[in-house]
Amino acid sequence: MKNKLRYLTALLVAGISYNSTAGAGIALRTLDEGVPTKPVRSSLPPPARLLPGNILGTEKVVIASLCALTSSNVVQSRAYGMAGMLGQQVPSVRENNPAAWYLPETNSLQSFDYTSTSFHSWMGAVNFSSATLGEFGHRIVVHAAGFFPVNAYSTRVSSSDTNLGSGTFNVATNTTDGQELTCSSTFACVNFGPDGHFDSVFNPLTRVWDVHGDDIVYSNGERPSQIAYTAWFRFGGTVVVTITEPEGFAATINQFIAGHSLTAELIRNGEPVDTQTVTDARPSLTISVENPSQVRCTVAGGQVRVPYRPQSRPDVAGSVWTDMPFIVSFAESFLVSMDGAMQFYRLRTN
To answer: How far apart, in whole angstroms, are the C-alpha atoms of residue 137 and residue 125?
Structure first.
């Protein structure tokens, strides 16, 4: 599989990544750094304070699934991510919008969520929809936020998936050269001003900050060590497995047959202050009456590309589960005859 599965793992919230081919050494580089942008002082009334979902002014990590770094939509996806972290309304449905900011729920991680491809793909399929034909898969991004000083923070990412690495990096420095990271469109330091409230927003269309009230937003190349600020937040770092052939999807899918999770921790002065874990989506069966002699069992949830084997037995416990002579996948259904006897059903990974 080494010639088919080539992977790079990008860690962490400092925007620093490392990549390697199978059996090779680690090479560090920066992948998700934004460009310096000058904030704009807005003449409009400030938005409502404390927008739902706003992570600025907290200590928090957020795991998102976004388009690949090679996508033509990557810049717009970063802008949606920055605005989304502030609780602003942004596109979040990704089926036909590659720039959407998608947040996997706790038990909904898919095998393709951190799979980027050297060929066109989307949501684990080569031809998913006309709107996504030019895409190259996905990547996980770990967002983070905290308080002054930023150099007190690091982020640790770990996974039970053996395709992924794990590690810890300081948020404030570039691991490539050890230098201090400067403020940019994806790494903002914010002074809440005398009133102690944050009123500004990130404009996802212009990709610059709209500054309101007495806020001061630093995003134009300032060094955090030389400015006074209340809080910071970063778009984050990437976690990704890259495959070079469609057959490589099998390697990532096989990991998820066993069940996997991805965990991000925000650490301040050596102590964890926030943790988020997302686990793989597990399937369930829904049963509905099809006609007087049959019921329909439908796969609800689970992995989109993972095959499942239905099993049955006549009682809750005691009997051996018997394999049914077919496999099913996400959203598929099958009919079962009702012969008057009690019967129970479940799914197992094939």
So the answer is: 9
Cis link prior to 133 (omega < 30° from 0)? no
191: closest CA among 164, 157, 230? 230
Backbone φ, ψ for residue 312 (5° rounding): -145, 160
Contact yes or no for 302/283 (Cβ under 8 A): yes
**Are 243 and 5 a contacting pair, CB within 8 Å?**
yes
237: which strand partners? 142
Tokens, residue 32: 């998700």
Measure Cα distances from 197 to 46, 47, 194, 235, 348 in Å: 11, 12, 8, 21, 51
Tracing tokens 């998820």 back to the chain, one arrives at: 256
How far, in Å, CA of 335 to CA of 314, rounded?
A: 17
222-266, pLDDT tens digit by residue? 999 999 999 999 998 888 889 999 999 988 888 777 778 999 999
Q: From the CB of residue 48, how many other CB atoms can be counted at a distance below 10 Å?
A: 9
